[in-house]
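Researcher: We plan to redesign the surface later, but first we want a full-length starting point. Tokens attached.
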């Protein structure tokens, strides 16, 4: 197999010039670049990623840090980020911080990042002071999705508005007894979104002069299985709500399944609205607030690539992705 030295000798240039030409860097004339590329093709030369990294100081690898990867939201983000980075000859190093418990996670360490990546994208992750100090010390560009990081760009949706749209859809249909499911412990690994959504539910109900009850704000892990179990006490009560705002579509699907097992007809006996527009939402005919998760991933990846390339001026800029209410068959006016 040919080496970079062989290419340099055949092209009549230095090894450094070959390296710059094949990596698309400046300080190489178009004529020289074309000649080097032609000779490299003729000699079947393939640049070593390791050698290129040593010369450039770049790994062309981006760390994507997630509290979970098995859930639809995080998997969809990861897929969009990976496709966007691959289009620019970058690759993903996945750092899954999931622990055995929903409300705990592993922590970022220097060995995960140092000399391994050019930048970091965090997925709805609350970064503590120690981890933030590590990112500062390593000087890595970072873009956050969902949960903000100080002095870093953020890609997000308006979580409070999403819940407000869902709750006001039910209120507009005539529901005055509206419950919520999706509260999590204060120690949860991705607290920002759950807290914002619960607060918005309480604020929206209060703004419309409608009562809320502690037992109607149900704590649950954000899975269909957990929601199907956790909502049963509320739906089994004769004094149950007529509508439920679910913090995610997966939670909403669990609520619908629990209602059916209890003999309730959706939406005649119980209206349910979710948030996400999950891939199963259309199949379930679920009313939901749609967010474009793939667009969030693509936007974050492009922002990070700009930072890696030295684009300045982002700071703590926030990009808010639009949301919209999608009305399907799981919501209706309350029964008389």
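Model: Full-length starting sequence:
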């Amino acid at each position: 197999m040919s080496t970079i030295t062989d290419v340099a000798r055949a092209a009549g240039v230095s090894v450094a010039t070959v390296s710059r030409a094949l990596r698309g860097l400046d300080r190489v004339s178009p004529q020289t670049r074309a000649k080097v590329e032609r000779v490299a093709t003729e000699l079947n030369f393939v640049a070593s990623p390791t050698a290129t990294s040593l010369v450039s100081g770049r790994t062309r690898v981006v760390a994507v840090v997630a509290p979970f990867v098995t859930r639809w939201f995080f998997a969809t983000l990861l897929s969009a980020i990976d496709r966007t980075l691959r289009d620019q000859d970058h690759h993903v190093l996945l750092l899954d911080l999931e622990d055995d418990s929903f409300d705990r996670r592993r922590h970022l360490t220097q060995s995960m990042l140092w000399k391994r990546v050019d930048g970091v994208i965090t997925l709805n992750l609350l970064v503590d002071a120690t981890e933030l100090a590590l990112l500062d010390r390593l000087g890595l560009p970072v873009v956050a999705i969902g949960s903000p990081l100080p002095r870093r760009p953020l890609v997000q949706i308006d979580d409070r508005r999403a819940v407000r749209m869902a709750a006001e859809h039910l209120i507009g249909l005539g529901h005055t007894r509206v419950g919520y499911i999706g509260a999590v412990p204060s120690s949860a690994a991705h607290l920002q979104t759950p807290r914002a959504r619960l607060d918005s539910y309480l604020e929206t109900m209060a703004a419309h002069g409608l009562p809320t009850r502690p037992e109607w704000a149900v704590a649950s892990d954000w899975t269909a299985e957990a929601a199907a179990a956790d909502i049963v006490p509320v739906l089994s009560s004769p004094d149950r709500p007529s509508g439920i705002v679910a913090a995610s579509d997966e939670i909403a699907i669990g609520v619908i399944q629990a209602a059916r097992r209890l003999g309730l007809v959706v939406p005649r006996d119980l209206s349910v609205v979710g948030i996400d527009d999950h891939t199963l939402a259309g199949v379930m005919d679920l009313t939901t607030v749609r967010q474009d998760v793939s667009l969030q991933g693509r936007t974050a990846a492009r922002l990070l690539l700009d930072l890696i390339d030295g684009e300045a001026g982002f700071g703590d800029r926030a990009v808010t992705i639009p949301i919209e209410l999608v009305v399907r068959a799981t919501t209706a006016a309350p029964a008389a």
